[in-house]
Structure formats: structure tokens, C-alpha cells
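A reminder from the course coordinator: this example appears on the midterm review sheet, so study it carefully.

Given structure:
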């Protein structure tokens, strides 16, 4: 089984098309042994201890997030945001601070339209490669979190180290997943619910938001799916179990050959949500979060993620 070090090394020396071919082969060889835990791991449906349900008695939550990996992705953010706005959605956009030039105009536009800005680290590479050096990197990330008025973090390529993340000034992290044996660091957290990650050294911590719907890259590029059946099946299962359906969509793929599949399928998927019965949109801003008076788990509910919650 390849390790995260193998991935990083191969990524640094192989052309992109060859990396994709190799990952396709790896996915195909992993799939048979993963069929009992992917896309659905039945054991992940148990709510965390102390779980009090969603605000206002809603049945499940939907969270739409975007990771902006490249300059091309950055330039497509507005297009994606406009489409979401048209359909009544708001989402979060996670930017890499120093891999491409970030437009102030874009950031301001997203914020003023109710979208959230989050950190996708300083460079798009494993931030935990050297645990000893992470505090230095963390101070750089904290600088941008403050500058962007951001409270959320998503690690590049879903590398995760939940202890080291306590160095960040965040309200939530979203660098894990319930089940995804195809990731470079494939250990899932085994739950479709958000959960609290306490800092053993003080009474602080952050909330962890695992992604629970397979990534667009896996489905439409590596697996070459032509429809959204896997998303629909998983979404229904998450809703039945009262969990959190969390998407990661990459604006980087808009206008590429894959946009026709991943972009359009994403929109189609989003269009199916409002058709569900008795749904309502809940946008939790940092200010609303502090004034709602929700208790315990809900007090710490991440401040600015889009949540579409079904009340039936
Ligand atoms: Zn990324």
C-alpha cells in the first residue's frame, strides 16, 4: 500500500496525466476490498456522545465547501458562486494563501454575498510533513486567518493531524472524512456527524467536520462516473440517519474537460436538494452563532457554513 511519502514523492516527479493514470489504477485495485465501507460505512451512522440534534429540530445538515487549488480555480470562483446564489445556496471557499495571487475584489465580493472564506494552508502540500516545524507554519496560517477574518481550515489533499491542528486559531477544521480509502492518508474518522476535538492542555478545541460525500475528483476524474447516483444514494442514507452531508467541490475543474461532467453534475445534485419536502436554508454567520444561545455542541457549531436542514 503506498504511503503519504510515496504520494508526495511521485507527485513531485511525475507529470499530472501519469499521476492520474496511476491513481485510477490504484482506485480500481482498492475498490473490491472497500465495497463494505465505501461509499457507505454502516458503522459511521452512530451520533457522537452528547449529540443533541440539529438546531431547530432539523433532520440533517448539508454543507457545501470549495477548495481552490490553482490560479484557474481562483478565477472560476465567481462563476460558481453566482450559480449557487441563483439556486439559493451559500458555501465556503478555502484558499491557498501563497500559491497564487488572491484577488481582494473576489474575497470582498464573496463575503458581501454571504459566502465564507477559509484557509487551505499556505502552499498546497502536506502541512504536517514535519511535525516539529508545524508551529511555524501554524503562525503563518493564523496570520492569514486573522487577515481574512476566517475561522475554518481545510488541509491540502486531506492530510490530517488532529493534535497539531490545536496550533491554529480556528473554530472548525474540515480535513477529514467519514470513509475514503482512496485518499493518500486513508484513515477515516468513521462518523457522518461533526464532533468536538478537545485540547488536552486547556479547555479549548475545535469542531471537526468530516466530508461525507465523495469528492468530485474521485468520482468524475478517477472513477469516470457519468452520473451522480453515488451522491444520491449516500445523501439519502445520510438524511435517513440524521447526519451531515458535506461536499467538497473544486472550482479548478470548471472549463476543463471535466467541467462538463463534474460541474454540471454538481449543479444537478444541488438542484435535487430544494425538491425535498419541508426544507429550509440556515446560514450561520459568526454573529448569528454568538447570539443564537444554542447550548453545548451547538454553541460550538462552526460559524459560517451553509446548512440546508430538513425539518421533517
Ligand atoms: Zn486542495
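Designed residues:
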Amino acid at each position: 500500500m503506498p504511503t503519504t511519502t510515496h504520494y508526495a514523492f511521485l507527485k513531485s516527479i511525475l507529470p499530472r496525466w501519469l499521476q492520474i493514470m496511476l491513481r485510477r489504477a490504484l482506485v480500481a485495485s482498492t475498490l473490491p476490498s472497500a465495497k463494505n465501507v465505501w461509499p457507505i460505512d454502516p458503522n459511521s451512522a452512530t451520533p457522537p456522545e452528547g449529540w443533541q440534534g440539529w438546531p431547530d429540530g432539523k433532520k440533517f445538515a448539508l454543507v457545501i465547501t470549495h477548495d481552490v487549488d490553482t490560479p484557474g480555480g481562483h478565477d472560476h470562483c465567481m462563476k460558481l458562486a453566482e450559480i449557487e446564489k441563483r439556486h439559493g445556496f451559500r458555501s465556503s471557499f478555502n484558499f491557498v494563501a501563497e500559491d497564487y495571487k488572491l484577488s481582494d475584489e473576489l474575497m470582498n465580493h464573496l463575503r458581501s454575498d454571504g459566502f465564507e472564506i477559509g484557509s487551505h494552508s499556505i502552499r498546497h502540500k502536506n502541512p504536517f510533513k514535519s511535525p516539529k516545524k508545524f508551529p511555524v507554519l501554524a503562525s503563518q496560517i493564523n496570520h492569514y486567518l486573522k487577515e481574512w477574518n476566517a475561522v475554518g481550515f481545510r488541509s491540502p489533499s486531506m492530510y490530517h493531524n488532529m493534535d497539531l491542528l490545536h496550533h491554529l486559531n480556528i473554530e472548525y477544521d474540515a480535513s477529514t472524512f467519514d470513509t475514503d480509502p482512496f485518499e493518500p492518508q486513508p484513515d477515516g474518522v468513521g462518523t457522518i456527524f461533526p464532533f468536538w476535538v478537545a485540547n488536552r492542555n486547556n479547555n479549548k478545541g475545535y469542531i471537526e467536520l468530516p466530508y461525507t460525500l465523495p469528492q468530485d475528483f474521485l468520482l468524475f476524474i478517477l472513477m469516470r462516473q457519468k452520473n451522480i447516483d453515488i451522491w444520491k444514494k449516500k445523501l439519502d442514507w445520510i438524511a435517513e440517519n440524521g447526519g451531515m452531508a458535506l461536499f467538497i467541490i473544486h472550482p479548478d475543474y470548471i472549463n476543463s474537460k471535466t467541467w462538463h461532467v463534474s460541474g454540471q453534475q454538481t449543479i444537478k445534485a444541488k438542484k435535487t436538494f430544494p425538491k425535498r419536502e419541508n426544507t429550509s436554508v440556515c446560514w450561520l454567520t459568526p454573529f448569528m452563532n454568538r447570539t443564537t444561545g444554542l447550548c453545548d455542541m451547538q454553541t460550538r457549531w462552526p460559524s459560517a457554513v451553509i446548512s440546508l436542514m430538513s425539518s421533517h
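The longest helix spans residues 16-34. DSSP finds nine helices and ten strands in the chain.
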